[in-house]
Amino acid sequence: MITMKDVYKTYDNGVTALNGINVEIDQGEFVYIVGPSGAGKSSFIKLMYREIKPTKGTLYLNNKDVSQIKEKDVPLLRRNIGVIFQDFRLLPKLSVYENVAFALEVIEESPRNIRKRVMDVLDLVGLKNKARFFPRELSGGEQQRVSIARAIVNRPKIVIADEPTGNLDPETSWEIMRVFEQINNSGTTIIMATHSKEIVNTIKKRVIAIEDGLIVRDEHRGDYGYES
Amino acid sequence: MRARTINRHFREGIKNIFRNGWMTVASVGAVTMTLILVGAFLGLILNLNHMAKNIEEDVVIKAFIDLTAEEDQVLTLGKEIEKISGVESVIFSSKDEELESLIQSMGEGGEVWQLYEQDNPLNHAYIVKAEDPHNTEQIAQKIVNLKGVDSITYGQDVAQNLFKFTDYARTIGIILVAGLVLTAIFLISNTIKLTIMARSREIGIMKLVGATNSFIRGPFFVEGLLLGVLGSIIPIVAVLSLYKVIENSIVGMTSIGFVELLPFNPFAWQLALVILVVGAGIGIWGSLMSVRKFLKV
């Protein structure tokens, strides 16, 4: 499903973030990306939703070379990928319902479908009764659940999360992880960059460790492997 | 694009206008000020141009015919003048007509000239008009060399100075209007850029969930259009009413014959339409220019 071959990324300022990455990730996998700060985790993730392009090498997503996709086709790629961030990135002036519906409006889904799918997905993340609330009226964990709902409402095959529990307390983090597991159980691939030793060591999944822009470890049901 | 989407763009665009509060006021203010200046200058320049044309068209060559010329010589001369390229019309004016117009132009002092009615010392003349008034001098030079022409007059210096003045006025006018429009676009795109910067996060999220660039531009397009149109309302009202006032006050001043404005209908309405189109155009352009930067996510 995702194949990276000899992927290099050097930014305009001369900093090399990725130094020859080779990896394959199958449909339905749950993968943790771990490593020290500045190791290249974020660049690895940004490549997948084409926020950045590799300097060298190829990146296939569903048999399509992402680095060769034309600028105008990038939106189509992103509709098949849900992205979640540490800072939630919700629109403060929109309600919970509107924030999630937004992802369907921009792809010109019919109002009837929007209504049904938004309510379904809010039910899944446990926020059906808070649909009319605004982000500022929610806790951090709830806000992150809204952003997860927005990421999966398009029914993407891949969900990419960049430190999704980074801003949350441990208890809330476990709630969020339960939602991720639920999504993964329905067949969606999850790629999650994290610094949480507890999560990685408790919910055992594939672990890819990146250091200095290289994959230094790739283990099925691996450990975090660093001091947190 | 689906009707539902267009509907959404309009809804969002209008919502943004209200949501941006003072920014909207500032943008509309910038458009208003600029369009008032553009409207005033455009009105002034087009009218100056119109007047200059009127004056230019009044420039004629008067070729006085030799007193000794026979009647058939006079006729031949007329035909020869007609043959000169660039000549629009040739009108014969007999010496009696010349005396009559002289007496008329002298007013009360003209009575003295009535003594000459029995023994008119003036020449017959041809009044020649050039197709392009700028060629008057060249044509005059050709006429003066023709046989049977005693002398010519075409207000040499006046004509030359007038042409110079009208040419300058046009050039300066065009430069001024172009400069103003460019300034307006700069002002508007900057103001709108501020409102868009405040919404860069929103644009980023739209891109992240797979919105196409044209979908993102939609509401901004509508917003720019509305800002431009709103900004053109006051200038249109101002230009229309001011033009009416000026036109009314000039009608009474018949003594300065060449000061003749372009008629209110249709000129003022055309000017209003130009202001509206320019306003909408710079609004849309400014808005799209500003959003462009944020689309490269």
From TrEMBL, chain A:
The record's section on Gene3D superfamilies has: P-loop containing nucleotide triphosphate hydrolases
Q: What is its main location?
A: membrane
Where is this protein localized, as stated in its record? Cell membrane
InterPro entries, from UniProt? AAA+_ATPase, ABC_transporter-like_ATP-bd, ABC_transporter-like_CS, ABC_transpr_LolD-like, Cell_div_FtsE, P-loop_NTPase
Q: Which UniProt keywords apply?
A: ATP-binding, Cell cycle, Cell division, Cell membrane, Membrane, Nucleotide-binding, Transport
Instruction: Cite a single GO BP annotation.
Output: cell division
Q: Which GO terms describe its molecular function?
A: ATP binding; ATP hydrolysis activity; transmembrane transporter activity
Which Gene Ontology cellular-component terms appear in the entry? Answer: plasma membrane
One Pfam family from the UniProt entry?
Answer: ABC_tran
Record domain ABC transporter: where:
2-228
Q: How does it sit in the membrane?
A: Peripheral membrane protein
> Its family?
Belongs to the ABC transporter superfamily.
Q: How does it assemble?
A: Homodimer. Forms a membrane-associated complex with FtsX.
* Family annotation (PANTHER family): CELL DIVISION ATP-BINDING PROTEIN FTSE, IMPORT ATP-BINDING PROTEIN
User: What job does this protein perform?
Assistant: Part of the ABC transporter FtsEX involved in cellular division.
The protein depicted here goes by the name Cell division ATP-binding protein FtsE
Q: Which organism is it from?
A: Ornithinibacillus halotolerans
UniProtKB/TrEMBL annotation, chain B:
Keywords attached to this Swiss-Prot or TrEMBL record, sorted alphabetically, are: Cell cycle, Cell division, Cell membrane, Membrane, Transmembrane, Transmembrane helix
Q: Its function? A: Part of the ABC transporter FtsEX involved in asymmetric cellular division facilitating the initiation of sporulation.
Descriptive protein name: Cell division protein FtsX
Q: Which GO terms describe its biological process?
A: cell division
Localization annotation: Cell membrane
Query: What membrane topology does this protein have?
Result: Multi-pass membrane protein
NCBIfam families, per this entry? FtsX_Gpos
What InterPro entries does this protein map onto?
ABC3_permease_C, FtsX, FtsX_ECD, FtsX_firmicutes-type
The record places domain FtsX extracellular at 59-152
Q: Which family does it belong to?
A: Belongs to the ABC-4 integral membrane protein family. FtsX subfamily.
Keyword hit for Transcription regulation: no
DNA repair found in the keyword field = no
- List the transmembrane segments: 21-46, 172-192, 225-246, 266-288
Give me the Gene Ontology terms describing cellular component. plasma membrane
Q: Where is the ABC3 transporter permease C-terminal domain?
A: 175-296
